[in-house]
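Hi R.,

Here's the input for the nicotinamide-adenine-dinucleotide complex you asked about:
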Amino acid sequence: MTANIRIAILGAGGRMGRALVQAIAGEPRLSLAAAVDRAGIPELGIDAGTLAGVAPRGVPLSADLPAAVRAAEVVVDFTRPEGTLAVLPLCVASGKALVIGTTGFTAPQKQAIEEAARRIPICMAANYSVGVNVCLQLLRTAAQALGPGYDVEIVEAHHRHKVDAPSGTALRMGEAVAEALGRKLADCAVYGREGQTGARDGRTIGFATVRGGDVVGDHTVMFLGEGERVEITHKASSRGNFARGALRAAAWLPGRAPGLYDMQDVLGLR
Ligand code: NAD
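And here is the predicted structure with nicotinamide-adenine-dinucleotide in place:
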């Protein structure tokens, strides 16, 4: 693994960007080469470390994207799709690796990312938590070994501000189980139950959602059999776990062949 990898953070003024600046401060192998955000935001010019609540890093928040890409070996992007699409051609032109944490891309935007990945190494994951990615692997193993005789139910809890349900991570967990059982989630998912539901259909995967308080994100997948049940649970307690996972990807990516990778590749779980 390369020592002292220079990282540019795109979206460094945001919640994840600040968590990344904090996490880099605890990573001796990585250095903060640039901190970029949108033109016009009031935080421009402030030291990225100060913004993130750690010691000053000597790197002011800037809107100069080309300079940031030039200064870095790897760009880590947690912005909005327009931010990702703006940095993509700059990374391709200069052969820089890109870690994409931004979510919410349209199909044509995803296609643009796939095309760029023919020229440079790109890691893209909707969830950079190492623990969640390990859970996906555990779920495949459990589903394959336990087989179709166990009923699968997924329960997730998030804070009161979350606007979608079930969470993208719960759906990804459902997909992992469904694939391992030779099913398609779209054909077997049951989202909540009410009233005269009838007996449970053994081929279904059930989802239940809890919303409230400040829960960062809890997910439990239950495999319920005759006389026993297995539960695989992940609980997130801060954004730091996403930041540390994204930095693990940033340390893994330089020197890789062009391609579109995800956290399963980074963690050697494929
Ligand atoms: P946020 O709104 O707090 O921060 C986003 C930052 O990006 C802001 O500072 C904003 O000014 C900046 N930005 C927006 N458009 C930009 C552009 N065109 N160019 C440069 N900067 C731009 O949001 P957040 O909570 O930090 O989340 C950021 C993204 O990361 C979202 O898409 C979110 O869904 C995603 N996310 C992914 C994971 C994961 O594990 N993959 C985890 C958490 C959040």
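One thing worth noting: The chain has two domains: 5-124+239-266, 130-236.

Cheers,
M.
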